[in-house]
Design a protein that fits this description.
5-stranded mixed beta sheet; 14 helices; 13% strand
């Protein structure tokens, strides 16, 4: 990359930030008591400062429309006089200059964007707001808890949490990924309740610590304690077993989703049979009471009889190409199941049995 392009990239990044850089030349002009100013005194080489940086950008974005709050920073490796003036001896040092004051209060609370915004809103009376992406986890409260968690047509996993809880914060990104994995399954719901605000719900289900996780299966709406592991894979394995699903992280399906062992055996029998029509009729009868996806076995058999065994490879390739494109989650599941079922025929035609 050429020097001009690199320079333009750096300028673009700088211009995109809502954090104001303070120097000896503009500090007193900005921190003059007219506005509340939150300042990070940092060093570019500092690991904790680097970790704070993305959260601090979120804080600054939260106050773009607030004229009485400024989010700023001071590079203490350059502005040594400012660092000395405010007694900065470690990085990052965070200080809050409340409107009407030019002497700061030390900030020693949490360092997430939520923590800092909550502090500034409380101290300044501002209404900074963090824009958060839509969550795949269903938010429950007293208005919708019973209609979702206690719906007898749904299996529902519920996290009872508190916004200030450290373990809850640690679980949040993991739980969000679990929500994404099952978001297309209407009967298997991943949900959460702010039990700090919804104390009545917490008390109703015996919540005494955070996070408390309970599973509300279709046949037991009293709720069952979840005491398993808290990794993404732990939750996915648990919900697959309890909801009767075969999801993988991210929302896809396992390679055996839609497959039925008895019908796989008929697929193998069909591919080697001389009288394929007889085996197809046997399959029609065997799949009559199974899920609708199972009907695809005899549809494949019909196509093979009409077009020959090459249909298996041709159709598998076609579905693979389609799955690489953009489509609804429902269509993706449908095509994945079909591809999986075709695999039962493909392994039989190769003279091998899939394990």
């Amino acid at each position: 990359m050429s020097a001009p392009i690199v320079l333009l990239s750096l300028i673009s990044v700088a211009l995109s930030s809502n954090v104001l850089d303070l120097t000896t030349s503009n500090f007193d002009e900005v921190v003059n008591g007219d506005k509340s100013v939150f300042v990070e005194f940092f060093a570019p080489w500092c690991g904790h400062c680097k970790a704070l940086a993305p959260e601090y950008e979120i804080v600054a974005d939260a106050y773009v429309k607030e004229s009485n709050v400024v989010i700023a920073k001071v590079d203490c490796t350059v502005e040594k006089d400012l660092a000395s003036r405010f007694g900065v001896t470690g990085y990052p040092t965070l200080k809050f200059f409340k409107k009407g004051k030019t002497e700061p209060d030390a900030y020693n609370s949490g360092r997430t964007a939520d923590d800092i915004v909550s502090f500034i809103n409380r101290e300044s009376g501002a209404r900074g707001f963090i824009k958060k992406p839509a969550s795949a986890v269903v938010q429950l409260d007293k208005s919708n808890f019973d209609s979702i968690a206690l719906d007898s047509t749904k299996d529902v996993l519920v996290e009872f949490y508190a916004p200030w809880c450290g373990h809850c914060k640690k679980l949040t990104p993991v739980y969000e990924e679990v929500g994404k994995t099952f978001k297309s399954d209407r009967s298997c719901v991943v949900a959460k309740v702010d039990a700090d605000s919804e104390k009545e719900l917490g008390g109703r289900f015996g919540v005494s610590g955070f996070p408390t996780i309970k599973f509300f299966p279709k046949d037991n709406k009293d709720g069952e304690a979840y005491n398993g592991g808290r990794s993404q894979e732990d939750f996915i394995t648990y919900l697959n077993a309890r909801c009767g699903l075969k999801r993988v992280a991210g929302g896809g399906l396992t390679d055996d989703a839609g497959r039925v062992e008895a019908l796989d055996a008929l697929a193998a029998k069909f591919m080697s049979a001389e009288d394929k029509s007889a085996v197809m009729e046997e399959t029609v009868a065997a799949s009559a009471d199974l899920a609708k996806e199972a009907q695809y076995y005899h549809k494949v058999m019909k196509k093979v009889i009409e077009k020959g065994s090459d249909f298996i490879d041709t159709e598998t390739s076609r579905l693979s190409r389609m799955l690489e494109g953009s489509m609804s989650d429902e269509k993706k599941d449908q095509f994945t199941v079909r591809k999986n079922i075709l695999g039962a025929f493909a392994s039989s035609s190769d003279g091998h049995t899939e394990l």
